[in-house]
């Protein structure tokens, strides 16, 4: 009997489902990072801050910050959809750029829940959902309520 390897899209769908169920229990954000080898790290209680077109995610232990610069944004109803333009990990006083192959950031800054386009998934008020794949094959999924919005 031969087993087929799980495709990368299946990993992404699994990560999206897992984060959707986890984040319901958390008032802050949850980040799932799945490496190309299949290992998954989960970061809970992530602080999410939106400043202009930049998302700042700070780990609960305050040791790491993920900076996501968004570009090419459009609106689908009240949902803002953006392409992650730049991603950087700031840790131990050093900044490391992360090369993105493809991804999307969804933002619901309204006061009501909104349906994601072409999906049955809803985004609660002041919530983000970000999904991307790096050039090294790592999948990143982020979902959570926005703790602070600055112009």
What portion of residues belong to β-strands? over 45%
Count of runs of 4 or more consecutive helical residues: 1
CA(first)-CA(last) distance: 57 Å
Number of DSSP strand runs = 12
Compute the average pLDDT: 85
Lateral strand order in the biggest sheet:
1-2-3-4-5-7-10-11
Low-pLDDT segments: 1-26
Q: Can you offer a commentary on this structure?
A:
Strands 1-2-3-4-5-7-10-11 form an 8-stranded antiparallel β-barrel. It has a two-stranded antiparallel ribbon with strand order 8-9. The protein has one helix at residues 8-23, and strands spanning 29-34, 40-51, 54-58, 64-76, 79-91, 94-98, 100-108, 114-115, 122-123, 127-134, 139-145, 148-150. The chain is mainly beta and 151 residues long. It is built from 1 helix and 12 strands; from the N terminus they run H-E-E-E-E-E-E-E-E-E-E-E-E. The radius of gyration is 15 Å and the shape is globular. Mean pLDDT is 85; it is low at 1-26. It has one domain (8-150).
